Amino acid sequence: MIDKSMSSPEAAVADIFDGASVMIGGFGAAGMPDRLIEALIAQGARDLTVINNNAGNGDAGLAALLREKRVRKIICSFPRQSDSHHFDALYRAGEIELELVPQGNLAARIHAAGAGLGAIFTPTGYGTLLAEGKEIREIDGRNHVLEYPIHADFALIKAQSGDRWGNLVYRKTARNFGPIMAMAAACTIAQVNEIVPLGALDPETVVTPGIFVQRVVMTMASAAAA
Amino acid sequence: MKRMDRDAMARRVAQDIPEGAYVNLGIGLPTRVADFLPPDKEIFLQSENGLLGMGPAPAPGDEDPELINAGKQPVTLLPGGCFFHHADSFAMMRGGHLDICVLGAFQVSVRGDLANWHTGAADAIPAVGGAMDLAIGAKQVFVMMDLLTKAGGSKLVEQCDYPLTGLGCVSRVYTDLAIFEVGAGGARVIETVDGLGLEALRELTGLPLKQA
């Protein structure tokens, strides 16, 4: 019998190693796998490369992981926000490396990794600072920028419901990066609000097929999803 | 002459959005356009974080932290609306499926170059979000901004000196003093507020403007 469910967030993240690349789902707090991040902080892995849309909000979740100085580099589209003070302080002190990526290119590069593509040509960013030094190719009369896939050792994502084979459905705009990060990581760990029996998820509406998910862990519905 | 206030600008942009349009409203001033879309027209609002058919802010107490817009504010979903992941959301932009996006700007050039993501200041922490994807993706890009900086300089310029978001991507610029068409043919004035003539507008902007 195949059972991808894990007993706890701590067990689910136990083998994340120093220097690992870790995708973390979420757009702000929506879809952020807070329990997995808390477990990762407790677990102690450091020198991480984190891929997320943002660079942490307030003092919880990803912001706490940054505050604990576990992150060497962050790849994101929108680090600077009114409540991104932990990132801001590290960045100004030169204690974190930032790779800034337009949000659609971030999604496309993650998707490309999951889809096994060697690279993509994207029109986004052409002629801007974020394309400097990159190969440009004119295709059908339009200039495109060569961008490479973003793979990760682990993806930590949040979904609404999962089953023991790893099939997932999401909730509202908490879906955001979850489905594509699940595809792009060697080991995808999903924090879910409920684990349901096989067959309980309508196969017509499964968003992430279980092949993309290695571990599922049920957590109490967090305050953010209550 | 009478400057348009922010609500008047939002109302004016809303007038130019036809029924059936798929529209993304940027963070800040453009978000206000939603308040002035005529309720008798069906217009589809897209939000980059994965929803189409976005409705207004919920009643106090009905907020859902997992139902937010690109500015991370709580919103609602209209009947017929739907959710999708980020690759699909940005395929809607990059793939040319959005009819209109409305963005704020630091500067726009007469050829339609857009600068709206970074001041270029040495101590600024850069953040781009979806700005570059929206700029080059939608069929029409409308900019909403004040025409003049606080110091009185024109934000419609011959050439942007802030870092660019996209090249030749803006089609129309809605300001508090006038509305412009921009593009390969240069900037042309569509309309001005009462009491502001073309010659006075040329002086304010320092640009050889033509009437559209």
List the helices and strands and how they pair.
The complex is a heterodimer of chains A (226) and B (212).
Chain A: H1 9-12, E1 21-24, H2 34-43, E2 48-51, H3 62-67, E3 71-76, H4 85-92, E4 97-100, H5 103-115, E5 120-122, E6 136-139, E7 142-147, E8 152-162, E9 168-169, H6 178-184, E10 185-195, E11 215-218
Parallel strand pairs in A: 1-2, 1-8, 2-3, 3-4, 8-10, 10-11
Antiparallel strand pairs in A: 5-7, 6-7, 8-9
Chain B: H1 6-15, E1 22-25, E2 44-47, E3 51-55, E4 76-83, H2 86-94, E5 100-103, E6 107-109, E7 114-115, H3 131-137, E8 140-144, E9 156-157, E10 172-174, E11 178-181, E12 188-192, H4 198-205, E13 210-211
Parallel strand pairs in B: 1-2, 1-5, 5-8, 6-9, 8-10, 12-13
Antiparallel strand pairs in B: 2-3, 3-4, 6-7, 10-11, 11-12
Structural class of chain B, by secondary structure, is alpha/beta
The CATH superfamily title of the domain at 17-100 and 151-218 in chain A: Glutaconate Coenzyme A-transferase
Care to count the β-strands of chain A? 11
Q: Say what the CATH topology of the domain at 17-100 and 151-218 in chain A is.
A: Glutaconate Coenzyme A-transferase
> How many domain modules of chain B?
1
Q: What is the 3D shape of chain B?
A: globular
CATH superfamily of chain B: Glutaconate Coenzyme A-transferase
Instruction: Please state the average pLDDT score of chain B.
Output: 96
What is the name of the CATH class of the domain at 17-100 and 151-218 in chain A?
Answer: Alpha Beta
Q: Work out the helicity level of chain A.
A: 10-25%
Oligomeric state, counting identical vs distinct chains: heterodimer
